Structure formats: C-alpha cells, structure tokens
Amino acid sequence: MKKRLLISTALSCFVFCIAGAQQSSNKALARKILADIRLDTVQAKALKLLSGFSAGTSYSEVWIRDFNTFINGSLKVHPKEEVKTKLLMFFRIQGQGGDIVDGVVDSAKASVGYKYRYSSLLPGWAAHKNTVETDQESSLIQAVKKYIDFTGDQSILNECIGGKTILQRMEAALAYLHKDRWSEKYGLITGATTIDWGDVQSENGWGVAINDKTKWALDIYDNAMFVKAVQDFLAMAPRGYKAQTDWKAVASKVTANVRKYLWDAAAQKYIPHIYLDGSPFSSDFNEKEILYTGGSICAIIAGFNTPAEVLEINRQMLAAAAKEKHATIGITVYPLILKSSIQT
Fold it and tell me: Which candidate, 248, 208, 246, places its Cα nearest to that of 227?
C-alpha cells in the first residue's frame, strides 16, 4: 500500500506542477520546478520500489490504473518486453463488449470477494472489474501510449489477440464507454458515485460493485480520463486507419459539455457530481464545497482549462493543503472529513 501511495501521489503531483507551469507563461517557475532536486529524490525512491508490477505490498493484482501511473518507471527498471507482456494481459481478458478489467492476478491468489473472470487467452490468470469505476479502459489506452512514447515500439498496435489487433481492441474499449457509460442528456461519461478518483462507493454492499443502491453520476475525473484516452488513441492510430466512430468529434463534445455542466466558472473549480438518480448524501451536506484535486489534475492534463484557470486551481489546492496540517501527501479532497454526511 505504501508503494501505491508514494508512486501515484508523487508522480501525479509532479505532472500537475509541470502542467501548471507550462500552461502559464511563467518560465521562471517552470525552471524552478524542473531544477528542484527533491523531485529527483522522490523518483529515485519510487524506482527502487518498482521491483514488480502490483500496486503495493497489500495487493497481489496488477491494477491498470496504477500501472498507467507508474509505467514509465517500470520501463526504466524492467525489460520492455516484460512491461509489454503485462500490458497485453489486459487485452487478453478484455470483455466481449470491449470493457477492461481493473486487475489481473495469479489464479491461485484469486481469493478476495471479487467476481472473477477467466479467459483461455490468459491461462493461469484471473481478473476482476470494479464496476463502480469508469477509468479502466481509459487507463489502459493511456498506458499503451506511454509505452510507445518511451520505447518507440509501435509494433504493439499490430499485436493480434483473439483475431483482433490491439488498435482494434482499444477502439472497442472506447466504444464500450461511449455506449454503456454515456449520458445522452448531458453528452458526458457516467459512473457510480465515488470520491474523486477513488474506486469505492458509499452505498451498502460490496463497495466496488454496482448494486441496486448505486447512485449514477457525472464527474470530472471519468470524463477527463476518457478525453485524454481519445487523444492518445488518435495520436497512436496510423494514417489510413478507419475508425468506427469520429472520436475527435466525441472528444470535442465531451470537452464542451465539461465546461458547460461541470466547471463552476464563479468558483473557478469543478463541481463534484451531477446526479442522474439522486444523491447518496444527506440534504444538509453541501458537496459543492469539496475541492477535487485528482480529477482537476486530470482535467488540466486533458486540456480543459485556460492558463489562468490552471493557476487558480493550483492556488486553491495549495491553500487547501496548508489548512490540513495533519493531512498526508495523498490528500485528494478538501475538506477531508465526510463520514458524518454520508448515509449508510
């Protein structure tokens, strides 16, 4: 667990700082960040921990959202073929409808309370999907893009699994989101209500699985991850590839609707949720006071915000962190204490 927190939060903070600095015209700030040797120290410690591909000592699984976060580090300490093999595992156990699982694990260790799936294309392994989340497909596509950017190995796109190339399978993953996790009313990606980039819902029952109490919603994290995945897919697709959907138009539509429905221009921040079938929280809980840090970082990376807005988002995050004297580096929402407002 310590490894998961260190790598994901440290590298996310690094990406956010660089993105904020680059999108502003403050070259001096950018140089200051790039020259900060503390980032080198954090990276060195993170790389030392990347002895395997699981998300941490508490997990046996290889999780795609975590793998997407630290794949560049993995490529620095592992042979590229080994990293490639791990990426392809997620395509070997891809759902018939195009969906991507959260984690893959040695079948002998598939003993947690998940609903496991198996595939003849991936013998000896089991997988499970946290159905409350809508970032697995986007995470895998982004990870493939990072693999290609780091290695220059575009041959992965033509790898054939079960009669379909990786390029075709990535488009199928996007199509799954556009079909099964789509709000026609808002023109945005949907998901169960979770906290920022978290993967557990507040409703009773197995927290990672959709059930009859699930509250469907729209949020910035899922939509930013989707648009970034579309951008990466289009960047990877070779000339002449005939996509099944005009993904550039879809991404443009989502971007416009994010600005229309999820961006609070007056407060200069993203609202946490738009609920499609009611909120799981009590009526006296003002959710709009919450500052979503993870989703906001992803929104910046997806290009949703102007340079001035990036600076203001950064200012708000620094101010929130300064108020939480006992918060860890893994702060993801502010205020932190929500339990009294959640209905069980």
Answer: 248
**Joined tokens for residue 36:** 């900060």
3-state helix, strand, coil in the chain (%, to 5): 50, 10, 40
3-state SS class at 208: coil
Two tokens at 188? 């945005």
Contact 189, 254 (CB under 8 A): yes
9: its two tokens: 């939060």
* Three-class secondary structure assignment of 24-88: CCCHHHHHHHHCCHHHHHHHHHHHHHCCCCCCCCCCCCEEHHHHHHHHHHHHHHCCHHHHHHHHH
Q: What is the pLDDT of residues 49-95, one digit of tens each?
A: 899 998 777 889 999 999 999 999 999 999 999 999 999 999 999 99
Quote the tokens at residue 235: 């960047």
This prediction has a pTM of 0.88
Rounded Cα gap, residues 141 and 227, in angstroms: 11
